[in-house]
């Protein structure tokens, strides 16, 4: 049985909380009291890490780290709500940071704040945005930012076999970091050939699949996988509908024809749905499948 590994965001940040806090706030004089445990139930999720910090000028405050696989339009409201909850719970100012791993769809614009106006009541929340694809991958090799090493492939300039090899070497040579190699492999698969990734790395997807991080990714739905899964679900539903409709036009559908229909793409199924009313006999379906399969 593969050992379950904790490769969640909280453990990553806990590698060097002070260095992480300085990086996300761009304040060099920050000290960290603690990275909060799960007693704060409102924010105790794998993608939200709340830190208690202090600054010689600004005094004590909280840092809310919201880590997201991909930005979506719901995040501004969520950051605003969690920042308010943190401020209410700890009676301290909250510095929110939204860290996006992968670029969103081209139709989505990353908003730098939340703003609303309802019946004359205004609400506004600023937050810092860090897009990992805009951060130089070599940043992860700095001694105090090793928490970024698993993300090297999706950082700027990190999508090469050489950078993947260096990231893997860094993980293997650093105490307590080897568990993060599956996470490195997971992100490498977005930008490099899977066979090449597996050739370079020694990683087991079981470790990743049993981790809180992976569960969080599944819950949110990676856009590429989500879109593919949605298309497959739509295709299955469309095929089921057609297999109920076609017998009324052409008679019983034999098993071979059913297999052919279920193997069609969603676009082909849509086309078949458009033309099936023109069918008068089984041969019409056979001819269509021969032409389009």
Describe the structure.
The chain has twelve helices and seven strands. The protein is an alpha/beta fold and 293 residues long. It has a five-stranded mixed beta sheet, with helices on both faces. A two-stranded antiparallel sheet has the order 5-6. A hairpin with a 2-residue loop joins strand 5 (113-118) and strand 6 (121-126). Helix 9 packs parallel to helix 11 (266-275). The longest helix is centred in the last third of the chain and has 28 residues, at 223-250. The radius of gyration is 25 Å and the shape is elongated. The chain starts with 8 loop residues before the first helix and ends with a helix.
Strand order, sheet with most strands: 1-2-3-4-7
Distance between the termini: 43 Å
Largest sheet report: 5 strands, mixed
- The whole-number mean of residue pLDDT values reads 81
- Name the poorly predicted regions: 1-7, 38-46, 220-224
Q: What are the secondary-structure elements, in order, as H or E?
A: HHEEEHEEEEHHHHHHHHH
